[in-house]
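re: ur question from earlier - yeah i can do the single chain one, its not a big deal. heres the input i used so u can compare w yours
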Amino acid sequence: MDELTPRQDKILDLIVRNYVATAVPVSSERVLQDLGMNISSATVRNDMAVLEDKGYITHPHTSAGRLPTTKGYRYFVQRLMGQVDLPLAERLMIQHQFHQVEGDQEQWLRLAAVMLARSLPSAALVIPPKSAQCHLKQLQLVSIHDTVVLLVIVLQEGTLKQAIITVGEPLSQDVLTTTSNKLNARFSGLSREAIEAKLDGLGPLEQLVTEMTLRIMRSIDDQVGEEVYHSGLAHILAQPEFEDVDVARPVVEALEQGSVLSMSLSRFVEKDTVSVIIGAEDLGESMRVCSLVLSRYGIPGQMLGILGVIGPTRMPYWRALPSVRYMSSIVSSLLQEMYG
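and the output i got, formated as tokens:
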């Protein structure tokens, strides 16, 4: 990015913050009023012309005011905004809300989406955590009737699956429990590939149960994308940028098509940081008026998801980044306590 003078930095900062707050192009008179410097209006207009020449601001043909470009927002986030933390009162409120929810992963993720959406306000999305490979925590065999057995599989990532197995002869619950214990001792904590490497020496019933277990684990490993929890769509549709149905449609479709969104966002989000995705430079022309602020969350090396907010490029980034960062840390801590 082109280097700017300290005064030009301040002017760009004021234009971004004013335009985010009002959605009205910012005039040189307003900048001069807010700048608080003993300089002339001509000096401000000259600096604004430099900012426009460098591509940081632009102006609609119908207005003498200026508004930030994608490049201007990017400069603001990277150079001007600085490190912003969520106020203590908001952090305590978020903690309180999560403490009211029982230890249920789905409820946590839904609550995270709702609270992020309310905090800006904007739309929020939470992509559930997923492992590159699931790992078996334990399995249990339950006799249902004669030759019909219920297989219950619990994965370390929190997923529970059930399947019906038909065996060749009636088996007592004691036999089924002994088989379950033997397989748990052998396979607990292992991925599908690790289990497949330890199949030697299994008896007929053990082999039948293991094959069904592997089939279920394979189907989970092969899943493309996940459901996306989202909230607050009405917030962004109320913004002037989305009054045009053709502009709003790609945003609605992105939130509703969970698997597509999950795959497309993974390439943007870096580890241990909040990623800011702005307009057409990252998302393509169909979402040119949108920005996303995203973060990974979960347990490193075990299970990771993505959460964040989506709204117009005219987003209060100074609220979005600390909100997403803190929500990521809260949900990660909860998952660590449950599965870590």
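The beta strands are 57-58, 67-68, 123-130, 136-145, 148-155, 160-166, 229-231, 274-278, 290-299, 303-312. not sure if urs matches, ping me
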